[in-house]
Amino acid sequence: MLNALVRNSGLDRVLDATISIDSQKIFKPAPDAYTLIESTLRVRPTEVLFVSSNPWDACGAKSFGLNVAWIERVTPEAMALACVGSDVVPPLTMFKAIRTQMDELGLEPDYRIHALSELPDLVARP
């Protein structure tokens, strides 16, 4: 499934490899899930940029020692505007509001971006 998603998105043209935890039946944020990076790509965790829009996912990767870019798809400012003047917050808006908050585990991402399109400039930095 992951390979089809990567291919359909066009990311297969710019990625050297993808890693799926499905076959191992190990799920993030379990540390063993992140060891697949070293065994599959043969690189150290410090050489990896882990990208996710899920706060829990970003925290798990950061606790393992990876460099992390968190895709903050909805900014707190945009969320505040979505809630202004509304007596009832719809479920989808509530879901988005939860995803705008980094988990309170004392682990902050190295980078905050708003879209995947920002990655080329980010990884080009020395």
UniProtKB/TrEMBL annotation:
InterPro entries: HAD-like_sf (IPR036412), HAD-SF_hydro_IA (IPR006439), HAD_sf (IPR023214), S-2-haloacid_dehalogenase (IPR051540)
An example molecular function term from Gene Ontology annotations: (S)-2-haloacid dehalogenase activity
Pfam families registered for this protein in UniProt: Hydrolase
Enzyme class: hydrolase
Keywords in alphabetical order: Hydrolase
Xref: Gene3D superfamilies: HAD superfamily/HAD-like
EC number: 3.8.1.2
NCBIfam families attached to this UniProt entry: HAD-SF-IA-v2
PANTHER family: HALOACID DEHALOGENASE, TYPE II (AFU_ORTHOLOGUE AFUA_2G07750)-RELATED, HYDROLASE, HALOACID DELAHOGENASE-RELATED
Name used for this protein in its record: (S)-2-haloacid dehalogenase
Organism field: mine drainage metagenome
Gene designation per UniProt: dhlB
